[in-house]
Amino acid sequence: MSVELILTVVVLTNLRLLGASRLxxxxxxxxxxxxxxxxxxxxxGGRLTTLHVVVLAVGSMVLKGFVFPRLLFWALREAxxxxxxxxxxxxxxxxxxxxxxxxxxxxxxxxxxxxxxTDLSWVVAVAMFSILTGLFLIVARKRAIHQVLGFxxxxxxxxxxxxxxxxxxxxxxxLGLLLDIFVxxxxxxxxxxxxxxxxxxxxxxxxxxxxx
Amino acid sequence: MNSYLVIWLLLIVPVAAACLxxxxxxxxxxxxxxxxxxxxxxxxGLAIAKRVFSSGAATAGAEWLRLDALGxxxxxxxxxxxxxxxxxxxxxxxxxIDAGKLVANRARMFAGLWCGALGxxxxxxxxxxxxxxxxxxxxxxxxxxxxxSVHVTRESLEAMWKYILICSVGVAFAFMGxxxxxxxxxxxxxxxxxxxxxxxxxxxxxxxxxxxxxxxFVFLLxxxxxxxxxxxxxxxxPDAHSQAPTPVSAIFSGFMLxxxxxxxxxxxxxxxxxxxxxxWSSSLLILLGIVSILVxxxxxxxxxxxxxxxxxxxxxxxxxxxxxxxxxxxxxxxALFHTLNHSxxxxxxxxxxxxxxxxxxxxxxxxxxxxxxxxIVWGGGLFCSILVLIGIAPFAIFMSEFQILKAAADNQAMVxxxxxxxxxxxxxxxxxxxxxxxxWGDPGDARLALPARRAEAAIVFLPLAALLVLGLWMPxxxxxxxxxAADVIKQAGAVQADSMFSIAR
Amino acid sequence: xxxxxxxxxxxxxxxxxxFAPLLIGLINxxxxxxxxxxxxxxxxxxxxxxxxxxxxxxxxxxxGWLFRAGPAVGLAAAIVAAALVPFGxxxxxxxxxxxxxxxxxxxxxxxxxxxxxxxxxxSSFEGMGASREVTFSALAEPAMFLxxxxxxxxxxxxxxxxxxxxxxxxVWRTSPALLLLVIGTLVVVLLAENSRIPxxxxxxxxxxxxxxxxxxxxxxxxxxxFILYGGAVKLWAMSALISGLIVPGHFGPWCGTxxxxxxxxxxxxxxxxxxxxxxxxRLLRVPQLLVGGAALSAVALMITLS
Amino acid sequence: xxxxxxxxxxLLASGFLAxxxxxxxxxxxxxxxxxxxxxxxxxxxxxxxxLSSGGVESLRLAWALPLGELHVSxxxxxxxxxxxxFGMSGLSAVYGxxxxxxxxxRKPLGVxxxxxxxxxxxxxxxxxxxDAVLFLIAWETMSLASFFLVAFENERAExxxxxxxxxxxxxxxxxxxxxxxxxLGRAAGCxxxxxxxELKLLSGNMGSVxxxxxxxxxxTKAGFMPVHVWLPEAHPAAPSHVSALMSGVMIxxxxxxxxxxxxxxxxPVWWWGYLMVAIGLTSGVFGxxxxxxxxxxxxxxxxxxxxxxxxxxxxxxxxxxxxxxxLPALVVLGFSGAFLHVINHAIFKGLLFLAAGAxxxxxxxxxxxxxxxxxxxxxxxxxxxxVGAAAICGLPPLNGFVSELLIYLGAxxxxxxxxxxxxxxxxxxxxxxxxIGGLAAACFAKAFGIVFQGEPRSEQAAHAHECVGLMRVxxxxxxxxxxxxxxxxxxxxxxxxxxxxxxxxxxLSSVAxxxxxxxxxxxxxxxxGVVLIMLGAGFALVRWRLLRHRSVSTAVTWDxxxxxxxxxxxxxxxxxxxxxxxxxxxxxxxxxxxxxxxxVFPGHSxxxxxxxxxAGEFLFRPIFSGVGALFSRLLWLQxxxxxxxxxxxxxxxxxxxxxxxx
Lengths: 212, 505, 306, 662
Known about the structure:
Radius of gyration of chain C: 19 Å
Mean pLDDT of chain D: 90
Largest sheet of chain C: none
Number of helices of chain D: 26
Strand order of the largest sheet of chain D: 1-2
Helix content of chain C: over 70%
Oligomer: heterotetramer
Structural class of chain D: mainly alpha
Low-confidence stretches of chain C: none
Order of helices and strands of chain C: HHEHHHHHHHHHH
Strand content of chain C: under 5%
Largest interface: C-D, 84 and 85 residues
């Protein structure tokens, strides 16, 4: 599978995330994105499929494709919610903004063109687009789950950049990264659980007691 | 003992202490184990720091771990703060255990995470690989997050949620920045294994791709800046500081912020030596520093909650350190000096504020008024530490702030100097206005006695005394250590340690 | 230093001390003449002083040592001031750079003591008079300094004697406007400082309208004598400032003194005439008069500055 | 030099010792005050020696602070101020022992003495420091120590408010000094005052900037209008011996700093002198006007400090104009007048505050309207206040007259100069000083007359007693000082010559020559003073002879024949000052609150006036509340929503990316 194709599918999943209202669908989309990303090192590293790359690919596929979605579904069940409540920015509007963000990301990718390798500009663009999509989801949605999803999409964007633009990040660093993300999502999941128990909802815009 | 062994021990001791503490049944024993662990760590840290300052950087693990003067200085400051906070935690939680407000497993969790966070922060200072350094920061975030809601309340959960999400986003940016810098280093033809080694980056800075380094530094600054509480990314900070139990607030403010700023410091010499980027990072640092000072000023002026007030002071002081860093020269020296001053003072401020809050059941300043009449240790200590924080002479913060002002004047940056003074002036006016009724106001009917043990009095007044001494007299060895640490930032020995003190001669 | 001249200064000083009460008599006679009365004798004040010297005293229980010491020290201050004034072309008995400041501040001391004496009684009328006195003198003092500054600038001398030695016919010829304006200011100050109409009416019988007289209501016997005499000396000394301008001396020692004394008498009569033809100003208008007087000298200064 | 350093050490040591003494009645006071007195004796002797020898003694020690050096030195300029500092510290410390005694049960007196001694020590340090960092540390320590002293009765909200105002004002003033020294340090490459002086750093445009910074920074401490706002708040709030020290000498350190900075000037720009004269006269006139409108005795005195600082500033302005226009007479007369007034004001303002403190101590009120007739129950205090009042009004033969005469002489000297550029400000000085003199006399007639004369207006005033000996002695010392300087003016002024030389840059011979020409007036003034006293005594003797054999009786005050006069019928302070306050009401903006008398049988009626500070009320309060309002509107930035916070992060990131990576 070519890198370009995988990246294009990632873009499409991002757009779907922007337009979807059902939380379950969102979680599944993010899971799909995770699986795709697991394929990415295999695709780029076609010439040197080392143990390092395989471990990384399998690890991230398992974690992002299966563990995280299950964790989030569990939280969702606990909270008895399925849909996003009135988001700050509507779904159509989100898609529109998504279009703009994609344009901006492509522009940025062109700016950072690396030593002649033109295909990398698309990598940078998709990475940036994912980061921006993730940020947008965190900012524009109300449910805590959605924010965890946004964070994951952001991390995916960074991962795309790391895999695509830099040939050899040391394994130790990569594993540390994976572990950190895992713990982060785990802690966030626990936090969502606690919040849900204490507040009987998980609309984070209502968490505004602390101000000033 | 070999220095590489000490470095490994620095990482092992906290983890071991964490494991031991979690396994205990008794809450008190867990807390004591944490204290002992931190104590051992402090001794180790002092020993290695002494060696580093006298004979240069120490390395271990095939250069993956490296402790130079900058790291050692920060490590020692952190360990001192950590040790003080551990002593304080023992008394603080001891009272809560007595009152039945803290159950054993929460206390064990606290002790474990406390030591774990220490290990993570130590990792930040000893790693030579910038990726591992990042891992350390992220680990710190995750380990400290549950500490905020040791007492599970709605407010603490809200604070924890904001903390974890904002900081995770920020730290993710920092990782993106790290990767961008690494991407910029692709062409420098070093082994990919060593691509993120700080020493390698410094050595090969001249061949880095400026475009990537620029973008990377922006990501890094925003990312680590979020963790360091620089405005406008500081919003999690007042919530987390105010809701966390006081020992946690103390290390948050006293050192976790500095650890993130330390990461930025690591990149400054790299960025500065990239061709064409001389002075580029300074402008960013100065900008964020000034914005932080001014934003903090806005919120300090109309604050009602004592711990939030102190939290905004942290924003201000992080801004001051960043500003000093951006100004360079004497400013770098002053920024590092200020790190110590702020950490010591803020820790004491939180200790006293926390004790008063614990006794009165609120951190609302109008209900804590007249604290000096309740207890000279807690009330007086709080008043003194606020005065020191807002830059009263002859304490050390006044000196470091004056040095930063001098650095601004040396750079002909008079607008910066003016904004700096305006910000500090507003903070002074506001904080003094809060501090005076807090110390001397009418205590109302809440006349309770707040006895303090000798050890408690010591952890309140010894740091303040140290600040007084440092404001009037800087021992030669300390000055040497600071200068050596500052030289690391000013591109490894490019500037002679004493050149900036020619003034004194 | 010329012996004749210092002899003349001494004589002038004695003239001031001796003839001062006569000025009051002259004013009163002039006023009586204008009113168509015969009026009191010319030497009435001398008789009064002699009578007061022979009398005992009644003190208010409220008063203390300051009340008793005030008149004596006040009189001393007036006499020191009189010793500073040049007269009839001769310098003052004492002269030095800046003596004009001492001149003004001597009267300040005298006034301060009188005012405190008034407040010592605790009487509300006397307090009222004291209040008015300090108000008007606070405005009169800058006016006087303005006038003197104009003269300092014209004659480039820093002492009263030096200034008046510098005023001659030549000055009158070259800058008459300056001198006239300064004289105008000094007349206003003279009237205000010596409690004359239109600022104050020494003959009124209603305490509410008094200024100077009401302050000394509780004084009696020798104390009151000191006050009356001190007032007369003050009148003389301040009039001498004006007469020194009008009769610029340089007629030789004896003629100078004689003309000076004559001028003083004329001046007293002018004051009497002013008192006869003018009504007392409302108290609120007095500051305007004083500021107006100061403005005259300010204009004079503008002339010297340009 | 050694004596002065020993003095500092004694001060600090006794302060610490006093801090350690707890409980035990007055021991803390004895230790603290004893240390101050010992240091004062030592300090007065050594600074007098240095002043009379005209030499400079200095000492450099290596000091382990980057940027700093322990360089201390005493020259004539420092010695003049040191004399005042040591003298006043010692006297007010003696006074303070008894003054603080009633608080002994409730307050830890040791703390108060610790800060008192620290204040004295830091003032000395400010005067001898020759290194900017050392100076700033001493300067800030001085502010801090006096802040704690002002906040002595900190359980009262208005005292806290006053202390806040004080520390804020002084600290914000220091900010200007920080910038000034940073700039000087950059230009000189070090922080040594001697180097600043050698380089003559106050020249050109930079010089003007530095001058303005110094003027604002030091002016805040000195109390020039309009940055004087802390004075009328802090002085009433502080214990009286502290007020005496602060008003008498601490604010003079501001003058010292300004003059010290001026010694680094090559040649002042012409408008510096103009500005000084303008500020000095504004402070003088406004200070005395606001003093007139006060009912609080100590607040009134505080405003008089503003007035006298204005006179000192005017003197400096005269000197500066002389320097710019090469008129040595103006230089010498202006500066020597200013320096002498520094000492004089220390003496009589210290005296007045101590006397006011005695009144407060015995009656428990500072409200002038509730006092009266105290001269009978407190004759010594009354005499002391009278001497102080006469001296501060500049009445001969006391000391105030001598210094004002010098400034007058300088101004007249300038006024007779042909250049209108010189003459115009000098004429303003003459008129301004005359106005200030007249108004000051009015104000002190009110203060003395209402407080000490007439009948007591309240119970407390009726039952007052004379204060004890330890409080009386310092007052008598100071009162005698007023008279002595008045009568030995020429000698005192000649001692000041080296200090004038220090600042003017004129050679000592020229200064001495110039002073010699003004020696004649001063001698004659002293002579006139003697004559005046003798004449007065003579007349008193005459009076005594005349009355000896006659009937002298007492009666009630004649009051238009009222049957039952009461003390409440007396003229009040407010009514006494009313004609003047009404005249200047556009400036004073006195607020009136009255319940008018209407109806045929009028019921209860009342009148209350309050004169807020013009700069505080119409300049600083609007600024502070405006900033506060603006900031509270900005609070929505932190409105609690996580999403918005992350948006900030994102915006920061994107903005910086777009802006800085171009």
